[in-house]
Amino acid sequence: MAAYHGTFENIWSRTASEETLLLNNIYQTSPSSATLIFGIIQTIMGPVAIVANGIVIYAIWKDPFKTLRSSPSNILIASMATCDVLVGLVCTTSQAILFFGAYTKSIGLTIFWIPIAFSIGVLLIGVSMFHILALTIDRVIAVVDPLRYKSRVTKSKMFACTLLIWGFFIFLILIRIPLQNHFYVHLLLVNLTFHIAIIIETVLSLFIILEVWKQTRNLKKKSLISVTFLRNKKTTKSILLILFIFKACFTPIFVADSVILACSACHSHLSVISTILCLSLVLTHVNSCLNPFLYAFRLPKFRKPVALIAKQLFCCRRHSKVYNDHTLEDLNANYKVKHSKERLNAVNVEPANTFVDTRL
């Protein structure tokens, strides 16, 4: 934030209170129309994130077809959905209050909410980001070592991974207390953590694409155009989409922070920079709205449970008798028979030494 101070002198001794006043100045300097629009967007995104991620949690919890709880990776998806529900419930609400406070020029309101929004945002956005990183690592293992995937990726390890992610970011927030008089030391740790995560996510995603491309090339050399070839093509598109959305949602906020911190001449364009900073905050919450569609709704194992739950939740009550216990058992049996036939066909068609994670 040296741009707003105009100098780097004693920047590492800036206190959290001084930073709060500085951020309040940023919000108050933002154009009124921009803060109003961003506040409305945050108000809309909150319910979307809550409902979409709530359906994912409910689907895994109920698991009507008995296909979701058996997958270790769904523990990560459930934990990430829980985090994204909190993002929609807490983060979007706090940011909307800040934007509307800036629009109405309520200085006291923004000063009160800035430290709360910062702490909650770092915790929940960081946890959500690192869950995405953990899911990418899970896919790398599935592509590189498919034969030992089930033995290497277990439910106990996934539980430990989720606890480690939550514990790390709780610790990252708590160390802000002893660093109250050295706010930028804490800010540097936060930015460094997120920058490293973005770099690792990019490298791993490109690595998966490279491995899939190698498998596809080997199939072409052997003249084997099979189900695996089509899955490889779909996997590449999925990874590229996930990588693009990940970078589009998370890169702007940390680039903006870095530019603001390093650019001492940027204070002459304060209104422009403050608008970009507010927009980048909104983008981090967009990711929480998109995660259910990227990691759950588009996957075959989630589609039928989600469709069934959506009908139970949103259809009229007079139709609820259709989904009694007997009907669920019949649907479950038909689902298992259908997928057993698909697996048998896949074994007869696909080469034994090729593997692509079908969840992508």
From TrEMBL:
InterPro entries, alphabetized: GPCR_Rhodpsn, GPCR_Rhodpsn_7TM
Listed SUPFAM superfamilies: Family A G protein-coupled receptor-like
Membrane topology: Multi-pass membrane protein
Domain G-protein coupled receptors family 1 profile per the UniProt entry, residue ranges: 52-295
GO MF annotation terms: G protein-coupled receptor activity
Stored Pfam families: 7tm_1 (PF00001)
Location(s) in or outside the cell: Cell membrane
Chief place of localization: membrane
GO CC terms: plasma membrane
Cross-referenced CDD domains: 7tm_classA_rhodopsin-like
Transmembrane segments: 36-61, 73-100, 112-137, 158-177, 183-213, 239-260, 272-294
Keyword field: Cell membrane, G-protein coupled receptor, Glycoprotein, Membrane, Receptor, Transducer, Transmembrane, Transmembrane helix
Name of the molecule in the record: Adenosine receptor A3-like
Organism: Actinia tenebrosa
Gene: LOC116307100
